[in-house]
TrEMBL record, chains A, B:
Residues 22-331 form the ATPase BadF/BadG/BcrA/BcrD type domain. PANTHER family: N-ACETYL-D-GLUCOSAMINE KINASE. Its EC number is 2.7.1.59. Belongs to the eukaryotic-type N-acetylglucosamine kinase family. SUPFAM superfamilies: Actin-like ATPase domain (SSF53067). Pfam families: BcrAD_BadFG. One of its GO terms (molecular function) is N-acetylglucosamine kinase activity. InterPro entries: ATPase_BadF, ATPase_NBD, Euk-type_GlcNAc_Kinase. This is N-acetyl-D-glucosamine kinase.
Length: 347, 347
């Protein structure tokens, strides 16, 4: 599988003594694994030896077995592509969505322990933690807001306290998520159709996008496959209707902004991250398709404006590396601190 | 299978010449089938020869095959219990939830045609139509509001026009349903827990009801089995918290009242059922656990009060028979009209 590597010395930019780190970002839509070399000093840009991609690894969405198969597949592929042996792996950090509880973490850790030799350091976190690390280059300080298919806000203080808000899934009201925005838009189409609410541009645009002749067909369409990502894929239609002046689409986006800002504010408040006067600096790492600033109606910017009204020290960060690299940097930081005897003060 | 019946004459209250009618109410939680005798004159109370019950027959919830198995099982059982032969069946009326589209209706009719001899009259309707008929003794005039696990409003005019509102399922915003009320209550617990909203009595009461130690466990609980009925079963907890003065629980119920009233008003408006001055009489048949008047916080009464403000002629009807009997009465009416040569003017 790997004839480019010798035993000892440096191959493919990897110091064999120091080995490699696997960082993984497992979301509801896709799973990415990267392999980076471990080294004494973190290079900028971070050298990524290999990257592999697969589908959903959220056990709540696809079940335990399918989630694990996806994780194993994507880690093996990244390692193979990197030209490194399994024995070179020093640490693995998994940032996986659906890790909501210490039990989830423990279950995945137990399973990882059967895959990797005992000297390999293993870290399992919610994917929000990897996303935060992608904006802070591995340092766990500040707040991260993810809004893609789902949404969650997570915060860490420098003295190791943490808090989260939202991220509870569609049943439990993640209305700022891509799924939430699109589900509200679909609901608006139904309500306009049956006379409960005013007409909206969303009707024609959504039916056209889905290739459906009438709002009556929407019920069958949602039941046919209620996958969150399939519904969330309608967000750009909502944004374009809002940009074209549709009042209901604008209301849906404004509500989403309030929801997203309130989950950031809840986390910052609980951790006292704004300091006594509320003006202290802290980064807010912004991640996910809903927050991408490529539209006139910029949801991410509006969320920041909302947060700034309460916490003027909040500083938005758009990560330069992806969350999988964030996960790898997290492992890099843990390993380095451990090497410096700081393990028990890990952030 | 049936040794109590002779050929010819009257047995078990059934005139063998006239035969029997099967009426079926298929909801998301349960499916009921009744067998009534067909006769020239409708008796009061309606003589029910037999009644059989089974689980969910909504194809959107349990899939096509399971839904059909349930329907066959419950019809066979009702017929067997009634002491009637299959050959005595004159008409079958299925009121099934999940019939949202002519295609759904046609699919079930095709399948029924393979089960019953060709002379048997077959009718397939949304379960809301059977529910309306249960309040109007088979006459299709007025409006019905169902609010159980799901919710739908349906209306029929005497000249045969019809309209519906809501009934699109949880993804498409049936917020007045039992599921909708309970999902909002669960969301309120999550929001109070992560600091996005104020504390509510719902937290302790819901956790106690579900036997969970902390709101963190709610995410796992909802993912473990997202069946709508299981979530809707929490409605009494929300009502009791509202009765005890909890502001958030009261807000959730008030919102549900507005949602339910708006779906009735949308139907009545589209059909012009209130007449030119809005004051004409029409019945509103109220069906389902959410509308049951056995609580101090009476959701059904509040909905009626809301509707009366717009349509003073609206007259609430609490059905004396169950929706399965309503389905049978619907078939009884169709058969009678057909016998009188009025088939093509069926309501």
């Amino acid at each position: 599988m790997n004839d480019k590597r010798s035993n000892g010395g440096i191959t493919n930019g990897v110091d064999d003594e120091l080995g490699v780190i696997l960082g993984l970002d497992g979301g509801t839509t896709s799973t990415i694994c990267v392999c980076i070399p471990f080294s004494g000093q973190l290079a900028d840009p971070v050298p990524v030896l290999a990257r592999a991609a697969a589908g959903c690894s959220n056990h709540n969405s696809v079940g335990e077995t399918a989630a694990r198969d996806t994780l194993v597949q994507v880690m093996s592929e990244a390692l193979l592509k990197s030209g490194s042996k399994k024995s070179a792996v020093r640490a693995v950090c998994l940032g996986v969505s659906g890790v909501n509880h210490p039990d989830d973490q423990e279950r995945i850790l137990n399973w990882l322990r059967n895959i990797f030799p005992s000297h390999v350091k293993l870290y399992v976190q919610n994917d929000a933690v990897a996303a935060l690390a992608s904006g802070t280059m591995g340092k766990l300080h500040g707040c991260v807001l993810i809004a893609g298919t789902g949404t969650i806000s997570y915060g860490f203080t420098e003295d190791g306290r943490e808090a989260r808000a939202a991220g509870a899934g569609p049943i439990l009201g993640d209305w700022g998520s891509g799924y939430g925005i699109a589900a509200k838009a679909l609901t608006a189409v139904i309500r306009a159709h049956d006379g409960r609410d005013s007409q909206t541009m969303l009707t024609d645009r959504i039916l056209q996008t889905l290739g459906l002749p009438s709002p009556d067909e929407l019920i069958g369409w949602t039941y046919a496959d209620p996958s969150w990502a399939r519904i969330a894929a309608l967000v750009p239609v909502v944004v374009s209707c809002a940009e074209a002046g549709d009042e209901i689409a604008n209301q849906i986006l404004n509500d989403a902004v309030q929801e997203l800002a309130s989950s950031v504010i809840a986390v910052v408040k609980r951790l006292g991250m704004g300091g006594q006067d509320g003006n202290s600096y802290f980064p807010i790492v912004m991640v996910g398709g809903v927050l991408e600033a490529n539209k006139r109606w910029d949801i991410g910017k509006e969320v920041i404006n909302c947060v700034l009204r309460t916490y003027p020290g909040a500083t938005p960060v758009r990560p330069k590396v992806d969350p999988a690299v964030g996960a790898a940097l997290l492992a890099w930081n843990y390993l380095t601190k451990e090497a410096n005897g700081e393990y028990h003060r890990q952030p």
